[in-house]
Write a structure and sequence with these properties.
It is found in: Membrane. This protein is mainly α. About 70% of the residues lie in helices and about 0% in strands. The strands form two sheets. A two-stranded antiparallel ribbon has the order 1-2. The chain has a two-stranded antiparallel ribbon with strand order 3-4.
Length: about 525
């Protein structure tokens, strides 16, 4: 067999120890390594790889700031002192211009788009830890600008939020990539779903902060919520020197001994660090046999295009399923019904925690698709209930469905979006693919936050619950797309996903397709 043929044959894998290229006849090396990963249950993985789990939680701290910033922006708009210092007084009431409110809510998303796309360049050169360090420094600068913004200097406040938004995009992108690369197969779904949990906890924390400071009558009514964001970048900067680098990044840089030390540290003395390092190296070589380069353009070439589209669409479908409409305007509906929304939020946290069990028990595709179905039904029910004069009973019913929606979303398409987009990419293009995913997330959130107020607000279209019909229709179309194109990544190693895409296996068959026969031969 020629050298070129060997290069292009995925069954030909370089022997790490011998420095030669040999076919895997009885049992391919990648199949043996995959079998080792498949044999590990989540509880066993938690026991042996507890350090990996804890470091993934640590790296997800930045995602908390994503949720905090998104929620605290809307909260500050209701703080009288903030409205007084950055708006104007009309008939004795502090007023913020609608155009400035829109800019204030949207500018972080614009920064997040730049942050997500910059991850590929930064992390490929500086590593995952380096990207988090850069994001932490940028976040501190952005928060400093917001904190020291003088009264009525609105442009300076927007610049601060824009800069901080860049950091937030980096934080969330890097968290997903790091969790996917550091976690063993049995924990990968749990740790990547944890990204969304941190986002929800950030929203919860911001609500508490606004309640605690919003009634103040000095500048610290809004400066304190800004200042608290300093805590988490500082925690990250303190812990980063002790955090292990991604072994995938180390192997790609040719630092094999360091990669084995990291793997041994993450998995403990009972694991075969050399075997895992070889699996990483040969997976990378397998991907190199399909494509030599790893640029953003490569994300949209060949089979990688399908993977990139999935990483983008999971966030498009979150918005199509009306998350900003239902959850972003839940306070509006609860006020109409006359009760608080604390319990609804708490139920969402419970749903996200349950995902830690369900993501491995039922799989990614099952939860995502049925979550889309359930959200579609709830949205349409909200629209039907609103028909007529939207009396008090209708308002109560819509509020109840909002609570149900929150639970359904947080146990399905909310966290599963972050799981799928981190797992679906090739190892070679992961930082770039997840960056594109976060760019899409930010763009869709930006559009939704601009458009939905005009649909809901009483002084605009005043559609209220009728907006459920709009998003119900979008969610229905999204449900059909998800059935055909959302793959099952549960229990699939990186090299197995590579082979499934290269063999052009339909996404709905990923979970059942057999790549190897009983003797380990590739079909």
């Amino acid at each position: 067999m020629s050298t070129t043929q060997e290069k292009n044959d995925p069954t030909m894998v370089e022997s790490i120890d011998k420095g030669t290229t040999e076919p895997h006849n009885d049992l391919t090396f990648l199949a043996r390594a995959a079998a080792t990963e498949h044999a590990l249950t989540p509880l066993q993985a938690m026991h042996t790889h507890w350090r990996a789990f804890m470091w993934c939680l640590f790296m997800c701290i930045g995602a908390l700031l994503w949720g905090y910033d998104a929620q605290v922006g809307g909260g500050l708009l209701s703080v009288p002192q903030f409205r007084m210092d950055f708006g104007y007084v009309s008939d004795g009431q502090p007023i913020l211009p609608a155009s400035w409110q829109s800019a204030f809510n949207s500018v972080s998303s614009i920064g997040g788009m730049f942050g997500g796309l910059s991850l590929g360049w930064i992390s490929d050169r500086l590593g995952r830890r380096g990207a988090v360090a850069i994001a932490s420094v940028v976040s501190i600068i952005g928060v400093l600008i917001q904190f020291f913004t003088p009264k009525h200097v609105n442009a300076m406040l927007l610049v601060g939020k824009l800069i901080n938004g860049v950091a937030l995009g980096l934080f969330v992108s890097c968290a997903g990539a790091y969790c996917a690369e550091v976690s063993p197969l049995a924990l990968r779904g749990i740790t990547t779903a944890g990204v969304n949990l941190w986002i929800v906890l950030g929203q919860f924390m911001s609500n508490g902060v606004i309640r605690g400071t919003g009634n103040r009558t000095d500048i610290y009514a809004y400066r304190l919520p800004f200042a608290l964001q300093w805590i988490f970048p500082v925690i990250l900067l303190i812990g980063l020197p002790f955090a292990p680098e991604s072994p995938w990044w180390l192997v790609r840089k040719g630092r094999y001994e360091e990669a084995e030390k990291v793997l041994l540290h993450l998995g403990g003395p009972t694991i075969d660090a050399k075997l895992q390092r070889q699996q990483i190296q040969e997976t990378i070589e397998l991907e190199d046999s399909y494509a030599v380069t790893s640029t953003y353009v490569d994300c949209f070439r060949g089979e990688n295009l399908k993977r990139t589209v999935v990483a983008m669409m999971v966030f498009v479908l979150q918005q199509a399923a009306g998350v900003v409409f239902v959850l972003g305007f839940s306070t509006y509906f609860f006020e109409l019904a006359g009760f608080a929304d604390n319990n609804a939020f708490n139920l969402g946290v419970v749903g996200n925690l349950l995902t830690f069990y369900t993501v491995n028990r039922f799989g990614r595709r099952f939860l995502f698709n049925w979550g889309m179905v359930a959200c579609t039904i709830i949205l349409l029910l909200i629209g039907f209930i609103w028909i007529g004069n939207a009396n008090q009973n209708a308002k109560w019913a819509v509020s109840a469905f909002t609570i149900i929606y929150n639970f359904v979303y947080q146990i399905s398409i909310g966290p599963l979006g972050y799981v799928i987009f981190a797992e679906i990419s090739s190892a070679k293009l992961r930082s770039k693919t997840v960056g594109i995913g976060i760019w899409t997330n930010s763009l869709c959130g930006l559009i939704a936050n601009i458009v939905i107020p005009y649909l809901v607000n009483p002084d605009e279209a005043n559609l209220g619950g009728y907006v459920g019909f709009i998003f119900g229709g979008l969610a229905f179309v999204g449900t059909i797309w998800a059935y055909f194109f959302i793959p099952e990544t549960k229990g699939r190693t990186v090299d197995e996903l590579d082979l499934l895409y290269e063999k052009q296996v339909p996404a709905r068959h990923f979970g059942t397709y057999r790549l190897y026969d009983g003797d380990g031969e590739k079909f």
